[in-house]
Write a structure and sequence with these properties.
Elements lengths: L4 H4 L18 E3 L8 H7 L12 E8 L4 E9 L10 H5 L2 E3 L2 E5 L5 E4 L1 H14 L7 H14 L11 E10 L11 E11 L10 E5 L17 H16 L4 E5 L7 E4 L3 E6 L3 E4 L10 H12 L3 E4 L4 H10 L2 E8 L3 E10 L2 E4 L7 H15 L9 E3 L1
Bound molecules: pyridoxal-5'-phosphate and 2-OXO-4-methylpentanoic acid (COI).
Length: 383
């Protein structure tokens, strides 16, 4: 029998609804009138895909400058939100988001991977978009609250996890161009399998020549919706040309490899060196990127953050100096790049398959996230 939310979830939650928590703000718990029946949920979890299936609950926190800032937090049923048609986000795209995952570990406990880094980057994005900071502890508490309510939605299979999508947008109804005074922070969750249909199989990458993603001084380092909106046409161009993802070059010289639409890149060479493009402000400072730099160094490789050109990429792949290229991110984990399709035709990395280091690093990273490899860095946070 399905118990109503007020019976089912609350005893598992880390705090009583009427008490303040580590974030110092009460979360009001709104009962769910009709949570998904367990058999339906378990059936859906068998093949969740990516970003198509959603859990029963969501967190909403309101911000109003006139009310002293962040003031009302609720954990309630996931439902449509109503928005004034003049809400600033709909006109000037004042919006940011994060992407992170809760993993089921061997012993059935749940863990997050470096969530404090997401909290920090969220605020860095907020500052670039002239939005208010969300206290990091409040961000983390919202995650704890939602995962506690929806913990049965975390897929248990090796490729599965609960993708968490915190986001914030300007909700003030006002058409003048200035930072809004009212915002909403919302957290939703989506059980996911692999981001790419082929799982960890090598992907084919389209080099965008007609479009760039971010210019110096722009918003490339912020996780804001507009960057992704701008990537859709080149991404569609890539798909029309039989590719899985698009790689962007720098906006000034159209020469330096920056990143994919939703992933950072690493190039592994035959002399034990690795290059990843530097954080110059036009690419997203990936948390997976930062973790891989450490893991690759622990493998004895010399990792350098330095510019790498598209012409060099092709030349090194052709001579065989370049052994592997990997794309990484929360959604894509570590994915091998097999083939690159540029304006001068196609080139293949290594044999076009999954390289040894890509495999090894992916297994180490996933092992830490899933609790089967010792977390010597203290990267996981148990829930
Ligand atoms: N680059 C872009 C544009 C992204 O959207 C993402 C995904 O979040 C990444 C890189 C990888 O970042 P992370 O490893 O923090 O998920
Ligand atoms: C993530 O990896 O979390 C992202 O936000 C990338 C997006 C393409 C799903």
């Amino acid at each position: 029998m399905e118990l109503p939310f007020s019976f089912l979830g609350l005893e598992n939650l880390p705090c009583e609804p009427t008490h303040t928590n580590r974030a110092g703000m009460e979360f009001e718990h709104l009962p769910h009138p009709a949570p998904t029946p367990a058999d339906k949920r378990d059936e859906a979890l068998k093949d969740p895909g990516f970003g198509k299936l959603f859990t029963d609950h969501m967190v909403v926190i309101d911000y109003d400058e006139a009310k002293g800032g962040w003031h009302k937090a609720t954990l309630g049923p996931r439902e449509a939100i109503s928005l004034d048609p003049a809400a600033a986000v709909l006109h000037y795209a004042q919006e940011i988001f994060e992407g992170m995952k809760a993993y089921k570990q061997g012993d059935d406990t749940l863990a997050l991977f470096r969530p404090e880094q997401n909290a920090r980057r969220f605020n860095e994005s907020a500052r670039r978009m002239a939005m208010p900071d969300l206290p990091e502890e409040l961000f983390l508490e919202s995650i704890r609250q939602l995962v506690a309510a929806d913990r049965d939605w975390v897929p248990g299979d090796p490729d599965g996890s609960l993708y968490l999508r915190p986001f914030m947008f300007a909700s003030e109804a006002f058409l003048g161009v200035r930072p809004a005074k009212q915002y909403k922070y919302i957290l939703i969750a989506s059980p996911v399998g692999p981001y790419f249909k082929g799982g960890a199989k090598p992907v084919k990458i389209w080099v965008s020549r007609n479009y760039t993603r971010a210019a110096p001084g722009g918003t490339g380092a912020a996780k804001t919706g507009g960057n992704y909106a701008a990537s859709l046409v080149p991404q569609a161009e890539g798909i029309e040309n039989g590719c899985d993802q698009v790689v962007f070059l720098d906006a000034v010289e159209k020469k330096w490899v920056e990143e994919l639409g939703g992933m950072n890149l690493f190039f592994v060479f035959d002399d034990g060196t690795v290059i990843t493009p530097p954080l110059t402000g036009t690419i997203l400072p990936g948390i997976t990127r930062n973790s891989l730099i450490e893991l690759l160094r622990e493998e004895g490789l010399q990792v350098r953050e330095e510019p790498y050109s598209i012409d060099q990429w092709r030349a090194d792949a052709t001579t065989g100096k370049l052994l592997e290229t990997m794309a990484c991110g929360t959604a894509a984990v570590v994915t091998p790049v097999g083939t690159v399709l540029g304006p001068d035709g196609e080139f293949t990395i290594g044999s076009g398959g999954t390289g040894q280091m890509t495999n090894k690093i992916r297994e180490r990273l996933v092992g830490i996230q899933k609790g089967s490899v010792e977390d010597t860095h203290g990267w996981t946070m148990k829930l």
